[in-house]
Structures are given as C-alpha cells and as structure tokens.
Design goal:
By secondary structure, the chain is α+β, with helices and mostly antiparallel strands. It contains 11 helices and 10 strands. It has helices at residues 2-18, 22-33, 38-44, 51-90, 110-124, 138-141, 176-184, 224-239, 299-303, 324-332, 345-348, and strands at 128-129, 135-137, 161-162, 165-170, 189-198, 209-219, 245-252, 255-264, 288-297, 316-323. β3 (161-162) and β4 form a beta hairpin.
C-alpha cells in the first residue's frame, strides 16, 4: 500500500507540474484528490486495515494529499498569472482604430433653458440673481407682503401648510425673497428671483408645483415708466424686437398701483388675424397676450423693512412676477403645462 501511495504521489506531481492551463489543472485535481480519486479511497479505507498498518498508511496518504494540495495551489497561481498576461496581450486596444459612436449627450430641460434666458436678459439690464428657500414662514410669504389675516390667498385650498407647524408652508410665490433680500441689503436693489413655487392647482394650465421669476427694483425716483421700460426690454429679449407691452389696471396686495402686463401677439403681429384671414388662435383675436403681473411696491411693504434703509418716503420701486412655464408654452407652442413634467422623451427631445 505504501508503494502505491508513493506511485500516486510521483505521478500526480509530474502531471501537475506539466499542466499547461487552469482547465487542465482542475481536471488533475479531480483525478487525484476528488471524491472518486484513488488516494481518497485509500484514506477512507484506513479503518479496514490491520491495526499495525493504519498509522503508516494514514500518515503517508495524508502527507501525499497535503503535498499535492500545495502543489495544485502554487500551479494555479502560476497559470492564472500567465493566462492573465496572455489575455492582456490579446485584448490590447488598437488606438488607430476608429472609436465607437459617441452616445448622445443630454440637454437642458426647456424650463431651465427659459429660466436662464430670462436671467441673462435681466443681468444684462443690471440685475442680480437671488434665490431663497422653498419652505417658507408665513411672515415672509404673506404678512410682510401686505396679505392681512383672512386674505383669500392664505386659505387651505390655495396653500400647502405644514400641519405640525401652521406658520410654515410651501411658498406660493417667489415674492418672499423680496423681503429677505431687502433685510440684508440697503437700497438701491435690483434683483430677479427664480424658483419653484407651490399651489393647490392641477389642470392643463396649472400645476401644484411650477416656476416663477420675480423681479424687484428699489431706488430713489423710480416710476411706473421705469417699470414699463424694463418690461419692454425683457419681452423683446424673449419674444423678439418687434414686441410691445400694454399695462392694464389690476390689484395685487403688495403693489400699488398694480397692473396686468400684455405683450403684442408674435403670431399675428398684434393684428388679431392670421395671414389666411382666420382669427389668431394664440391671442384669440385680441392682438395681445397676458404675460405677467406687476406694479409699484406698496409703501406698506417697504414699512416692514424700513429699518434696513427702505424708508417709503425716500425710496420707491417696482416688482413683477411671471410664470416660467407660461413663457415657455407661448414661445414653443406647448399646449399643456403637464407636458413639462411627464418625462416623455419624445416631447423633451424636441427642444434639444
């Protein structure tokens, strides 16, 4: 039995040393150390041997097994390294070959593009861009903007309040940043404020979350004429150099006087009639399209920041606010506000 163990050891040693691949080495492991291997059978049959032979045969078989296991491990490391080197050589990249077609890159969403365009126009007029929190305090969202208790805009059907903190809400407009900015900067101040706002609306022209751009200008001697000139420059930058603006009396709690602002229709050139004689569907034959709300800042609003230098007897100014989605819908003919948020690639890729 001892002679056979030595023969198995010598035979396996030579075969393992000559193995040329990992697959061949695995085959040898199964042949010499697997469950059906002869050496394994010797170890299992030790109990059947005479007592005086068990120690010698068991010791020789275990020694041979450990020697072959060590040899298999060393050979596996050697073959793995050589096979890796061979794969690296075979997989070498030929840099002279043409590359794979590049993947199409993404592009800015239409809402973001429209926002950046308006920001660029206003920065060109000397304004700075400011941003504020979307979770706001009642004081900044309503009280300091001349919305007294009981004002309809405070009602639950319009505003998302935090149930556990009734003074905290999702801002309904970007106007709170007017107060926050004036608290940190004395006049003059010229800022635009883009951002998300939240109201309880949802249909083809309203969304619970949408985007606004607020504008604020406070200095000495500003008048409604300055507001009109600013808005004219802005709408011409957005809709084209031939556009005109029209101011109509309106009411907003934080401006006095307040105006609705219309832009001359860019589809029918303000005539209300298309080239084929049909009524313009964009402006409904009126020649004008309502675009935003504006007005001169109410002295009551300035009273909340009088300690920051905004004495309503010395400075005055104007504010305006527009919906980014509305501008984008008008410029690009998007019929439904919800298309901006459906994530339909077919719609988004039209504006790449």
């Amino acid at each position: 039995m001892l002679e056979r163990i030595e023969e198995i050891r010598a035979e396996a040693n030579a075969a393992i040393g000559a193995a040329a691949s990992s697959a061949e080495l695995e085959e040898l492991r199964v042949r010499y150390l697997g469950r059906k291997a002869e050496l394994t059978g010797v170890l299992r049959g030790i109990a059947d041997l005479a007592p005086e032979e068990r120690g010698k045969v068991g010791g020789a078989a275990n020694k041979a097994r450990k020697e072959l296991e060590a040899l298999l491990e060393a050979s596996a490391e050697r073959l793995d390294a050589s096979e890796l080197d061979a794969r690296l050589v075979a997989d070498r990249v030929d840099v002279s070959l043409p590359g794979a077609p590049p993947r199409a890159v993404g592009h800015t969403h239409l809402i973001a593009r429209t926002t950046r365009q308006i920001e660029d126009i206003m920065v060109g007029l000397g304004y700075s861009v400011a941003e504020g929190p979307e979770i706001e305090h009642d004081y900044y969202n309503f009280t300091a903007l001349n919305h007294p208790p009981g004002h309809p805009a405070r009602m639950l059907q319009d505003t998302f309040y935090v149930r556990s903190h009734p003074e905290v809400l999702l801002r309904t407009h970007t106007s709170p940043m007017q107060i926050r900015a004036m608290e940190t900067q004395p006049p003059p101040i010229f800022i635009v404020i883009p951002g998300k706002v939240y109201r309880r609306d949802s249909d083809a022209t309203h969304s619970p979350m949408f985007h606004q751009m607020e504008g604020l200008a406070i200095a000495e001697g500003l008048t409604l004429a300055d507001l009109q000139g600013t808005l004219l420059a802005m709408v011409r930058g957005i809709f084209g150099g031939e556009r005109e603006v029209r101011l109509r009396p309106h009411f907003f709690p934080f401006t006095e006087p307040s105006v609705e602002v219309d832009v001359s229709c860019f589809q029918c050139e303000g005539t209300g009639t298309l080239a084929d004689g049909e009524r313009c569907n964009l402006c409904k034959g009126q020649g004008w399209i309502e675009i935003l709300g504006a007005g001169m800042v109410d002295p009551n609003v300035l009273g909340f920041v009088a300690d920051s230098g905004y004495d309503p007897e010395r400075v005055q100014g104007f504010a305006f606010g527009l919906g980014i989605e509305r501008v984008a819908m008008l410029r690009h003919g998007v019929p439904d506000l919800r298309r901006f948020f459906d994530n339909d690639v077919r719609m988004l890729e039209q504006f790449s």
